[in-house]
Every structure is written in C-alpha cells, then in structure tokens.
Batch of 4 targets.
Target 1
Amino acid sequence: MELQTILDDLAGAVPKAIGAVLCDFEGETVVASLGAARAPEQAEALAREHVPRSMALAMPVQEFLVRLAGAEPCALLRMFSLLGDKHGTGALSTFELRYDEVDVLVDRLPNDFYLVLLL
C-alpha cells in the first residue's frame, strides 16, 4: 500500500481530523492528506502571513496549513529525541500539543520519519 493511500485512510478514519502529514527528520513533507474537519477560521489568515505577498500559494490553504503545522513539531521531537539519547534518558517518541481549537499529535516512526495528526 503506498504512503498516500495509508495517510488518506488515516485522515478519513478520524472524524475530527483536519489532516495528517508524514515528514522527514527536517520537517519536510513526504506526503500529506486532508481530513473532513476544517481548520479554525483564523488559521487561514495566519497561514497567509507565512507566504510572501509576491508569491501565489501553489496549493489549497488547508493543505498548506497541514504541511506548515507538521514541519516544526517534527524537528522539535527530533531535537528532544537526540538530546535524550545524548544524555542517557532515552529518545522521546511521541508528544501532543494542544492549542485553543487544535490538537497536534506527533509520533516518531522508524528511520527518522514523523507522523503528525491535526485534530
């Protein structure tokens, strides 16, 4: 089963999913999928602040938000994992962030890949 299909199935199976994204160790999107739920209204305006005015957004805003929301938590989880390994406490493998209206679940997968689910 290809990665896009797996991610589409995951995002589709979770009713409150805004989207899911699989990232590499730098937070770069490998594949992304949109869920049935919409991001909070103010999220679109905030997303547009990340795109220079001279550039057109090359994807739907909802997909951009999912990719953007996945990038930094993956890098953060990797940093905590490396520090934990370095100091002998073990690697951090999962964490959850909660904002006013959005939950972000991040899980480290094998080979330095990360799964992010936005609810």
Target 2
Amino acid sequence: MARLARRLGLGATLAASAIGLASCGGGANPDALTACRGIHRALLAYDQSLHARTRSSRAALRQQATDDAAAVEHDAAMAASADGGYAGLMTLLQQSQELPFADVAPGLRGACNSINAGTNGF
C-alpha cells in the first residue's frame, strides 16, 4: 500500500510539474508538437487497453503505449533543449519507461493539452 501511495504521489508530482513547465514554454515548439502527436497515439493505445476484453490484449496495448511514448523521447529532448520549459514533458516520457503507463498518462495528457492549447490541435 505504501508503494502504491509513493507511486501515485510521484505521478501527481510529475503531472503538476509537466503542466506547469509546459505552460511556461515560449509558444508552440515544433518538436514538442511532434512529441505530443506520439503521446496522443500512446494515450489512444492506453485508453483502448482499459476496455480490452482479454488480458493479453490489455498487455499488448499497454506495451504499445509505452513503445509509442519511447519513440518520441528524442523529440521531447529536442524541445527541452530549445526551451527548458519543455523539460517536464521529457521527464514524463522518461518516466513512462520506468513506471506503469497508468501513472504517467494523466501527466502526459495534461502536458500535451497545455502545449496544444494555443495551436490548432495536433
């Protein structure tokens, strides 16, 4: 139980950091937008996993979400390199490889919603 509480606390902290840092970014960074397109795919796979009928389907979709997130880490790193305000996004993507995707999904969703708020979507 204590481990779950720590994990949830870390997830909440990362989510708050990502949203705050992403909102400080100086406009729509093309690399951040590219990362968010990949994150959007990851979140779709994760959301599908929540409704999958079989255990193997759930596991495969969650792995797809993790893989999709890993595929855009470089884009997030480039965005953070250009503007430190995107460091939270990069950190969340790194954490998505170490924590259950469910723990970082809300932070990734919030960060990309914030990044995309001033654009015409993905």
Target 3
Amino acid sequence: TLVEVLIALTLLSIGILGISVLAGTAIKSSSYSRALSQANNLAQERLEMLLSIDFDNIQVTDNTTGRMDLRRTCTGPTAGIDGLLANPVYTCTPASPTITLDNRAFTWSYTVAYIDLDANGTASPGVDGVKRIDLTVSWTDQLWHTTKSLAVTTVRTVG
C-alpha cells in the first residue's frame, strides 16, 4: 500500500506540474491580448484625432497648434511604394509619441502617402484628393521582452 501511495503522489505531482505550465501560458497570453487591445484602441483614437486635421496639412510639421496631441514633425517627401517621387510619402512623428497605459509604454507614428487615383503617374492632392494614412503603435511585451507593433490604415479624402 505504501508503493500505491507513492505512485499516486507521483501521478498527482505530474498533473499539478502540467496545470502550472498551462497557467503560466494563460497568463502570458492574457497579457499579450490586453496589450494588443490597448494598442488597437490607441490606434483608432489616434486615427480619429488625425482625421480632425485639415486635409492639406496632415503631412506638414506643426509645432504651434494649441492641442499638444496634434503637434508633429514630418519629414519627406520620399519615394512612394512604386519608387517614384511622383507618389510621395511623408513620415510624421508626434511631439508626444509615448503614451503609458497600465504601466506599459506605447509609441506611435504615422506616414501619409499620396494616392494616384486617376492613374496618370502623379499623385496630386489637388486633383486626386486622396491620401493614405498608415499609423503604427509599438510596445515592448513585458513577459517576452520583445517589441510588438500594430499597424492600421485609413484613407483620407478632401472634404
């Protein structure tokens, strides 16, 4: 009977060990899911904020606006995805790029690309009236200590 008790305790300890490994994985997954949800909410909030900027000025450096969250430094133009300056891309960094939620620091930035809607080879905001905004939110995963990021895209039209 002593042997049976030892075997039972061994099986019980193996089971408990397996459950503890699953609990650790669940905690890590929960932490990542929470960070991903926060990043998504932050990205949507920032996109809505960017849509309040005048169409002509969304890719322009502005360090004087009364709203601190709308101040930004933009560089460019650089060549677009087709490699041509006729379809320019501007890279913008907010004056306050870091936002802390639940002791987790998120950083965000965005790019503005002119879209050649009439396919004449040159993207012109005055003629085509369309800009694509790609916004990226990044953070460091607290458990894995790796950088994670989330990208969202929207299209902005004149008016």
Target 4
Amino acid sequence: MHRLVRRALVVVAVLGAGRGAGAQTVGLADDARAGIISAGAFVGLEFDNPDNAMVLGGDGRIKFGASNLEVNPRFTYRPFDGGSMQQIDINFLTNYRLNNPGRFRPYSGLGVAVHRISVDGSGSANDVGLNLVSGVRMAMRPGAAYEPFLQAQYTIMKEPANSFTLVVGTSFSFR
C-alpha cells in the first residue's frame, strides 16, 4: 500500500515538473469563466480501511460567476471482498489566491456525501455525511487540455465509520 502511494506521488511530481511557466500562465487552474470547466478521473487510497483500500472515481468542476467558488461533483467506488462502496459527493470549493502562485493552485472546501455500502447477499446500507476537502492543482502550460491534481478528503458520517481518502488524478478541459 505504501508503495502505491509513493508511485502516485512520483507520477504527480513528474507531471507537474514540466517546463517553467511563462509570466502569463492561464490554464484550467486559472479559468475564471463561469460554466463547466473540466471532468476527470482519479485513483487513490482510503486510509481508514486496511483491506482493499484502493478507490477509483471521477469528478468535475463547475464555476459560478466571477466568484472564487466552484462546485465539485464527484463519484467514488471502492470494491471489496463480497461487495462494494459507492459515494456521491457535492463539494463546494474555494481556490486560494496566491500573490506568486507558480504551478501549484491550492483549494479547500466543504461538501455533502451520500455513501452506500452494498454487500452481496446481505443488501445495502446508505448514509449521508459531511466532507472536508483540501487539495492542489498543478497548472500546466497555457492552453493545456489537462491538469493533474492531488486531493485529500475526510468524510464524517454517523454510520459507517468516517473515512479519509487521498487521491491523485487528472482533469480534462471542456473549453
């Protein structure tokens, strides 16, 4: 499991270590226009689960007006022996405005999670929870159609136990 995390971090570092950005870097991370910005896929780990910790999923980014607020719809899937977990999130993210941002664009936010555990032969259980989200996007060259990201999410639920996930992925532009 630790080897997978190290490999994922190396991939993020390699993707983010491209050529130096020019003085006018405008890409997905800096897109201020309202509307659907991107959709992407991710892979990661759920750390509170020692067995079958790998998660897969997809997410999107939708910007509203000239504000710094984005909506981040997200779907997460984790298979395990005899069943699976699915989670649908609606996160509200705020991008940090840095004086000298370089390649990294941090963000954080809150959201709502609908969590479902399905066990073969035993049925399923649903729960609603609260997400605490933090992450960073790596701005690529201007006009790039993709953007790597790293995101941590802690989901607080009544049942089942709370979960902490760390994912690495790439968003692809709709513009």
